[in-house]
Amino acid sequence: MQLILLTTLTMMAFAANSILNRMAVDGVGMAPMAFAAVRLVSGALVLFVLARGSLVFRGRRRGVGVLALLTYAVGFSLAYGTLDAGLGALILFGMVQVTMFAAAVLGRDEVPLQRWIGGALAFGGLVWLLSPGEGAVPIGPAMAMAFAGIAWGFYSLAGRGEPDAVAGTAANFVLAAPLGLVAWALVGGGGLSAAGIGLAVLSGAVTSGMGYALWYRLVPQLGASRAAVAQLTVPVIAGLGGALLLAEAPSLRLILSGALVLGGVALSLSSGWVRAGRK
């Protein structure tokens, strides 16, 4: 039960990142790269304090975590200049599922048939959403979010062997933050607003920094395949938040494909949580 509650809380934090980013970039005119940079810097500061300065910067895992975090943050912010909160989250975590399921297979993790079927249904909903036709998704922002999803999958996988979740997350943010500032400067800097800075700080310090530290702690207990499927609940939470807070009306395609994704999630998790709770 504790694992379920903590995972639910983490998924809500992930969904909040979509809403906060969308509010800042589309709502108050914050430049996407500026949002990404402020988000990384504020997350680094808070996590450095939480980790009490006890950071480990060496190792291949750290390099993967830093580059994945930076790629995710940049792609995420760029995509939300156009995509609605729920739509962007659906693309993001659909690609996370693909990445982490592939890692589970290559790593010879146990992936029961039921979870394969559920994952296939969920991914089918994502493919339907991105297919051409009426209500099709803009390809540029969709690709930016897809790359962000792949990067987040690698970031999650890098956290599986992290001995100290808070210290590991802090080290990733501390190393990624200067790179984010450089990337922002390379595109010309600027694009700041007071409200946007506040939203970026909230995203970086709370829903990203603290949320990711908790996620690093949970991933080893969940396993790669179950962690991938659990994250597919985030688009639904983000979509509801976008509708309530941003007046983003979901399209029929998004509703139906989202329902397919949810069905796949429910099928995949119906027996997995029980086994996890008995360990």
TrEMBL record:
| Membrane topology listed for this record | Multi-pass membrane protein
SUPFAM superfamilies named in the record: Multidrug resistance efflux transporter EmrE
Ion transport in keyword set: no
Q: Where is the EamA domain?
A: 144-269
InterPro entries (alphabetical): Diverse_Substrate_Transporter, EamA_dom, EmrE-like
Q: Which UniProt keywords apply?
A: Cell membrane, Membrane, Transmembrane, Transmembrane helix
- Major subcellular location class: membrane
- State the compartments where it is located: Cell membrane
User: Would the keyword Ligase be found if you checked this record's keyword annotation?
Assistant: no
* Single GO cellular component term: plasma membrane
Name of the molecule in the record: DMT family transporter
The species is Donghicola mangrovi
